[in-house]
Design goal:
The chain is an alpha/beta fold. 38% of the residues lie in helices and 18% in strands. α2 links the parallel β2 and β3. The radius of gyration is 19 Å and the shape is globular.
Length: 306
């Protein structure tokens, strides 16, 4: 690894919600960035800073990974999915475990030691395929022999997110929103804080071998998050908590609807609260940003009073 502060950082998943913001931040910090993409959405690629190098290919292919890791100093792996085709866990296993094993093999062969890996709060807990695959991925990272750092965020909030913006879409025409497991708890973390955590950990060798729970300062139930979204829009919407059987049925139907608003595995994930008393942001010297005051920004609304 180069000893200079300026590093060549390879980012997998760099065109996503967190990735493109992190790429911009690391470029500002003076690093050289290579972004790996599976291809796909040209609009997302267009959002990347021009100073970053974009390479498209199969991120599961060890040979491809070896080629792009030449001269790399560090790897940031942000690749992830929230839903899979079907409901047997194989899609999550391929993305979180299979792809990671290919990456670790390529890093070892190319002598690249520094790995910053995205995980999730609750990884390895509960019955959901998503969280179980995340947990197995963490085990692979810890056993890799690399200089790793793990990040375990709760739901990540920011403009264009999959949390408040998704609720906003669902509430647009519905006078009421029935939801299963309305009491499930979350601790939303601001996307800028997540980006800052990665940037600081990359610069701090003391973060090697540590995992960081990334959470905001406030805990909300799922029902409270929906109500907060509606209030920010000035909408009067009822939230109807569903009993377990109806919640399970809703999830089974939802995974076949356009946009897949909820799946059976999402519903199982809600069994595990996404909260933590050990906020890794503070360990990295970052003050957690309250999300509620930034909801108008998240939803693309003008500041209050304008």
């Amino acid at each position: 690894m180069n000893t200079a502060a300026r590093r060549h950082v390879v980012v997998l998943g760099g065109t996503g919600f967190v990735g493109r913001r992190l790429v911009a931040r690391l470029l500002r910090d003076g690093h050289r960035l290579t972004v790996l993409s599976r291809g796909g959405d040209p609009a997302k690629r267009a959002l990347l800073p021009r100073d970053s190098s974009l390479i498209e290919g199969d991120v599961h292919d060890t040979g491809f990974l070896r080629a792009v890791l030449d001269d790399a100093d560090a790897v940031v792996n942000l690749i992830g999915i929230l839903n899979e085709r079907g409901d047997d866990g194989s899609g999550f296993e391929r993305v979180y475990v299979g792809q990671l094993e290919s990456l670790i093999e390529a890093m070892r062969e190319m002598g690249v030691r520094r790995l910053l890996q995205m995980s999730a709060l609750g990884a390895g807990s509960g019955d959901s395929h998503y969280l179980q695959s995340r947990g197995r991925a963490e085990q692979r990272v810890r056993a890799s022999g690399l200089d790793w750092t793990l990040f375990r965020p709760s739901v990540i909030a920011g403009p264009g997110d999959g949390l408040f913006c998704r609720f906003d879409q669902l509430l647009r025409f519905a006078p009421a929103l029935p939801i299963g497991r309305a009491e499930a708890r979350f601790q939303p973390v601001w996307v800028g804080d997540v980006v800052q955590a990665y940037a600081r950990a990359l610069a701090d060798g003391g973060s090697i071998g540590h995992s960081y729970d990334l959470v905001g300062p406030d805990v909300y139930t799922l029902a409270e998050l929906v109500r907060l979204t509606a209030r920010t829009r000035g909408r009067l919407r009822a939230v109807i908590p569903l009993p377990e059987a109806l919640g399970r049925l809703q999830a089974g139907i939802g995974e076949h609807l356009p946009g897949k608003p909820i799946s059976r595995d999402n519903w199982r994930s809600l069994q595990t609260d996404s909260v933590s008393a050990d906020n890794g942001l503070s360990r990295l010297g970052i003050a957690a940003t309250p999300v509620a005051p930034r909801l108008r920004e998240i939803l693309g609304l003008a500041p209050a009073g304008d």
